Amino acid sequence: MKLLAIVLSKHLGNTMRVAEAMAEAAPLTIVPLKDAGNYNLTQFDAVGFGSGINAGSHEPELINYVENLKEAPPRSFVFSTSATGKHERYNSKLIKALERRGSKVVGSFGCKGLCKFFVFRLFGGINKGQPDENALAEARKFIEGVTDALEK
Question: What CATH number has the domain bearing residue 76?
Answer without folding.
Answer: 3.40.50.360
